[in-house]
Amino acid sequence: xxxxxxxxxxxxxxxxxxxxxxxxxxxxxxxxxxxxxxxxxxxxxxxxxxxxxxxxxxxxxxxxxxxxxxxxxxxxxxxxxxxxxxxxxxxxxxxxxxxxxxxxxxxxxxxxxxxxxxxxxxxxxxxxxxxxxxxxxxxxxxxxxxxxxxxxxxxxxxxxxxxxxxx
Length: 167
Prior knowledge:
With 167 residues, the protein is mainly alpha-helical. It contains 10 helices and no strands. Helix 5 packs across helix 6 (78-85). The longest helix is centred in the last third of the chain and has 19 residues, at 148-166.
């Protein structure tokens, strides 16, 4: 069993009780299992903001599974499908964005931020981005490593801007 992958869903108090019981007894009591089940039911049985949660799930799926989930959404919740199918979910999807819209968004960002955003992208995305900002002066751009968290933060802001404009 993968203890960590299971327990990371639990609050720290339940995690520690679970570990203690497994370490001490080799299993967990029915009472503790009931507490864990109650927590899981209260947390995961109903989703408060379905659209945001599904977008987050879609962002983290591979392409094949994303297509399957889109089809499930389309078949079962057309309004949700209409709402999220037009949204950009990850940075690589900007290849499908109208170049004028993309340029409008990129123009809001410094040259340095645009370069940073392109660092963790495919060659195709990088080519599209750089072609849209080629007139900018890039001589002062620092060619140093950038933490991936900073790159993703810039990419996420760009994705949000694209979604806001195209809404």
